[in-house]
Write a structure and sequence with these properties.
Multidrug-efflux Transporter Regulator, Chain: A, Domain 2, Rossmann fold, DNA Methylase, Chain A, domain 2, 4 domains, 31% helix, elongated
């Protein structure tokens, strides 16, 4: 007979410990004592659906589900990687992941360097290059306020929300199956209208929604009382040919002891890691709380002082001064282990849970590291989908894809070129934004830009302002064979029509500035030179051999020795483009400087 304690039975069926205790007292279910703990034998309460599922679980069988071929996937709102890791363990091959938070992106890159992690706003990503090439799309979209201005409550009515971005990705990619996950409260948000809008949108996209379920993490080898709403939708042309089967639960409820010590899910006790500390005053209060207890276990005067105004409130206070129990699953983790309303005190020591303890409760492996500050690591872990829950759902999805493969055999698409296209566009777009921001800053500070004082420059560099390139050995066939460093600084200068002949012939060797030159340009950092020919545009790339103070017509008749200019000695390298192009570039004050890669990207974005 398999025994389950009253508290763990309460967690399994989703009710309070007090309710289960009343059931036992009133004989609703036969109760027993085992090792000093009161509870039930599962075989005697098999009529309860959750118990029946556990007693007849196919967990071990489902552990052996493997993909018939490589199934490709895209994940949005990836966070610290709980869902992504679980799905990859099940057999999905992530070709692209998107996340807005920099720390979370660094976590993904640190643990899986080969994953294509796109950092930034999902709104900026065009997924159309992946159309009909990706098998699966997933995302735990944040639930924002929805608009119900439309009559049908469909796709258009989700605009402005992050669910809209998930729906847009589905529309552009057309995966065979997609999954969304959220908090269970989404089904009742705004009296159910939000959820109806989501369901209408899924239908409008051409997908059949599997009857949604709220999955309890404790049923899937996760030692935590956490619930997530899972939405699975199958493309209409496939929906009638296959059926999705939800994962079987694990055979027992795991507890905090299974997370912190060697167990069925971990080979060793939890390793030491950093963690926040309690202030001395708070530590003194929590010292009085027993394992599994809360504020109700405190002396009344201590509880009143600690709880402040919350003492007078009604229910919803069980998270205050809460100490976890080794013999029960952990309470749902939040983004911080020591918030007053949702306390998560260590069961044996008077301190908050450490980062690694937090990660174990979410079933992250010990070798999955988190980037960022300690608080940000807690946040990533607290927001994650438990890895083992994602793994269980992932195995069921792999079984679904195997069924699809059996009735509609297809080959795995090589998405590398499409992903490169998406990433390339984003990089060019980012470069253009940086470039546009630079232009804006210059325009805003136009009146503040000072002119370079050539006399001061001459005094500082009497032997000339030597570019770093002049120190490099000259390569034979330099103009034809040298490699271009897109990370070097380039100076773009306007060449007026009466001076362009040598530049058209590519044999210009000197460029003289006007009498004024902006102090924002640092000549000593310049590496390349691009002439911007009046009426033509830009095309050719030159190397700056040296920069110095000189005069307009050195060695020529009519030279004024007091007419100081900045002189660039240049050498033609190669054309950047086949023809002259006019980028979205304003030559303010005749000169501008930037990174060469930003300059060429400005052209590419303009053409797109």
């Amino acid at each position: 007979m398999q025994f389950i304690s009253e508290n763990n039975f309460a967690a399994l069926v989703g009710t309070s410990n007090a309710t289960v205790q009343k059931w036992a007292e009133n004989g609703v279910y036969p109760s027993h004592w085992e090792n000093g703990i009161k509870g039930f034998y599962l075989e005697e309460i098999e009529a309860i659906p959750e118990v029946k599922e556990m007693l007849h679980s196919r967990w071990d069988e489902e552990q052996n589900i493997h993909p018939l071929r490589k199934y490709t996937s895209v994940e949005l709102f990836a966070g610290g990687g709980g869902l992504a890791l679980g799905l990859s363990l099940a057999g999905f091959n992530h070709i692209l992941l998107n996340e807005f938070d920099n720390y979370a992106c660094n976590t993904l890159r640190m643990n899986r360097p080969k994953w294509n992690v796109i950092e930034g706003d999902v709104c900026n990503i065009d997924f159309t290059p992946l159309r009909d090439k990706v098998d699966f799309l997933s995302g735990g979209f944040p639930c924002q306020a929805f608009s119900y201005a439309g009559k049908q409550g469909g796709f258009s009515d989700t605009r402005g929300t992050l669910f809209f971005e998930l729906a847009r990705a589905v529309k552009e990619i057309r995966p065979k199956v997609f999954m969304g996950e959220n908090v269970k409260g989404l089904t009742s948000h705004d009296n159910g209208r939000t959820f109806n809008t989501i369901k209408n949108t899924i239908a409008e996209l051409g997908y059949t929604l599997v009857e949604p379920r709220v999955l309890k993490a404790i049923m899937y080898q996760v030692p935590q009382k956490r619930e997530r709403l899972i939405l699975i939708a199958i493309r209409n042309d496939l929906a009638e040919k296959v059926s999705f089967h939800w994962p079987s639960p694990y055979t027992r409820v795991l507890t905090l002891k299974d997370a912190l010590y060697k167990s069925v899910i971990y080979d060793t006790d939890v390793p030491k890691s950093e963690g926040v500390k309690y202030p001395a005053k708070k530590e003194k209060v929590l010292d009085l709380v027993p394992q599994g207890g809360d504020w109700r276990n405190l002396p009344e005067d201590v509880a009143k002082e600690y709880m402040g105004g919350s003492w007078l409130l009604g229910g919803g206070k069980t998270g205050m001064a809460r100490r976890l129990s080794l013999d029960e699953p952990s309470l749902t983790l939040t983004c911080s282990p020591c918030q007053k309303q949702t306390e998560r005190c260590h069961p044996l020591e008077t301190r908050p849970l450490t980062v690694r303890e937090y990660a174990r409760i979410q079933t992250f492996p010990d070798n999955w590291l988190f980037a960022g500050t300690m608080n940000n690591q807690y946040k990533q872990i607290g927001n994650a989908v438990p890895v083992n829950l994602a793994w269980a759902v992932g195995r069921s999805l792999i079984r679904l894809f195997n069924d699809i493969q059996a009735v509609e055999p297809t080959e795995t698409h090589d998405c590398s070129e499409a992903v490169a296209q998406i990433i390339g566009y984003l990089k060019r777009n980012d470069a253009k934004k940086a470039f546009d921001a630079k232009i804006k800053r210059f325009k805003e500070n136009n009146a503040k830009i000072k002119q370079l004082n050539f006399f001061d420059l001459l005094a500082e560099y009497p032997d000339g302002i030597v570019s770093s390139t002049v120190k490099e050995p000259q390569l034979e066939g330099y103009g034809k064979s040298c490699e271009i460093d897109m990370g070097k600084n380039v100076l773009i200068c306007l060449v007026k029509k009466d001076n362009i002949s040598k530049y058209l012939d590519k044999n210009a060797t000197v460029y003289y500035t006007g009498k004024r030159f902006p102090s924002t340009v640092e000549p000593g950092k310049l590496y390349y030179f691009v002439p911007y020919l009046s009426g033509q545009g830009a095309r050719d790339l030159y190397r700056i051999k040296a920069a110095r103070v000189g005069t307009r017509k050195e060695g020529q008749t009519g030279n004024n020795p007091n007419d100081y200019r900045l002189v660039f000695e240049i050498e033609y390298i190669k054309p950047l483009f086949a023809e002259y192009k006019q980028p979205p570039l304003e030559i303010w004050h005749t000169y501008t400087d930037m990174i060469l890669g930003e300059f060429t990207s400005a052209f590419e974005v303009a053409e797109d």
